[in-house]
Design brief:
Helix content: 25-40%
Largest sheet: 8 strands, mixed
Structural class: alpha/beta
Shape: globular
Number of helices: 12
Mean pLDDT: 95
Order of helices and strands: EHEHEHEEHEHEHEHEHEHEEEHHEEH
Low-confidence stretches: none
CATH topology of the largest domain: Rossmann fold
Radius of gyration: 21 Å
Strand order of the largest sheet: 3-2-1-4-5-6-14-15
CATH class of the largest domain: Alpha Beta
Length: 368
């Protein structure tokens, strides 16, 4: 199979879909890899490293897309990339179609096989390709929040860990999954007071056991959310429903009751966001203020730490990608239920139930 690695075009997206180790693996499996010149520079990877690993360097994105049967990417195709997609081509990347109806319709119209990292799901419910970026985003969320709590960035002027004799900062984390747990880890390390809310009692029990009482665990209901949000200096939105839009759990009415200069980081914004006042932003213009509260809603947070993120992502995506390249999409899906669950579009149909519902298109099960 001919596999293409284009340069990402999203604003300040420095990650790349494949590192040289992945190129070498695919080449050893008998595949041809086309890498766009300069695709890895944002992650500190030179063209020579790709060439040495066995990739063919090509000058333009148009050529990569035109010649490739399968595309390895990081972020969802943007409108400038739509014309490059073609019928039968496999696009293997984060798609987040529940929050990108236009892209979903384009994939269907063009007959593209869209395999979404975020819906490749193991039998136990884990999302192995979402996990590494969720870990990065969770840890970054506290790092970002600390910066925007500073007065010159619009914050209230709180040091999250406090100092002796002064209260510590309060952090409310909505969602106890990978993002939430990694955010909690960072916040606790800084000395903050942390509430983590989730609807799964097993998750709450796990967090309570791991952190030995250093986190206040709460069942996520409207009253608990409101009480935690209103008192918080920092709110982290960390809710995920695979393939579906994130539920809006934090309302504008709650935001109005927060102290001016508080900070919100909605990590779920690429799935529509779990905070009513949020909308996607970019690294060029990452924040906006609503009711005096600073909102950070960058949809590709891990792109800012590309050297870490690119390697972590490739460690997770490569094995599934190699299987698809080796077997083709039908046989790979037949042999791997996680891959079958990752197929969002195929031959002009939406093949993931939650995505179909979110984008108002008919659902068609992928052929077994």
């Amino acid at each position: 199979m001919i596999v293409g690695v284009p340069t990402e075009v999203k604003t300040r997206e420095y990650r790349v879909g494949m590192i040289p180790a992945g190129v070498r693996t695919l080449v050893l499996h008998g595949h041809k890899v086309l890498a766009q010149a300069g695709c890895g520079l944002g992650s500190g990877i030179t063209d020579e490293a790709y060439r040495t690993a066995g990739a063919e360097l090509v000058a333009s994105a148009d050529e990569v897309w035109k010649r490739s049967e399968m595309i390895f990417k990081v972020k969802e195709p943007l409108p400038e990339e739509y014309p490059r997609m073609r019928e039968g081509q496999i696009v293997y990347t984060y798609l987040h179609l529940a929050a990108a109806s236009e892209l979903a319709h384009e994939l269907v119209k063009r007959g593209v096989t869209g395999v979404a990292y975020e819906t490749i799901e193991l039998d136990d419910g884990r999302l192995p390709l979402l996990q590494p970026m969720s870990a990065v985003a969770g840890r970054m969320s506290i790092q970002v929040a600390c910066a925007y709590l500073e007065k010159e960035r619009g914050g209230k002027g709180i040091l999250l860990g406090g100092v002796p004799g002064v209260r510590r900062g309060r952090v409310a984390i909505i969602g106890g999954g990978v993002v939430g747990q990694n955010a909690a880890r960072m916040a606790i390390g800084l000395g903050a007071l942390v509430n983590i809310l989730d609807v799964n009692p097993d998750t709450l029990a796990y967090v309570d056991d791991i952190y030995q009482g250093r986190v206040n665990t709460l069942y996520s209901d409207p009253l608990s959310i409101e009480e935690s949000v209103v008192r918080a200096d920092v709110v982290i939105g960390a809710v995920l429903i695979p393939g579906a839009k994130a539920p809006r759990l934090v309302t504008e009415a709650m935001i109005k009751k927060m102290e001016p200069g508080s900070v919100i980081v909605d990590v779920a914004v690429d799935q529509g966001g779990c905070i009513e006042t949020c909308h996607p932003t970019t690294h060029d213009d990452p924040t906006f203020t609503v009711h005096g509260v600073v909102h950070y809603c960058v949809a590709n947070m891990p792109g800012a730490v590309a050297q870490t993120s690119t390697v972590a992502l490739n460690n997770a995506t490569l094995a599934f990608g190699v299987k698809i390249a080796d077997l083709g999409i039908h046989k790979a899906a037949a042999e791997s239920k996680p891959i079958a669950r990752g197929i969002n579009t195929w031959q002009g149909k939406v093949t993931h139930k939650a995505v179909a519902h979110a984008v108002n298109l008919d659902f068609h099960a992928f052929p077994a």
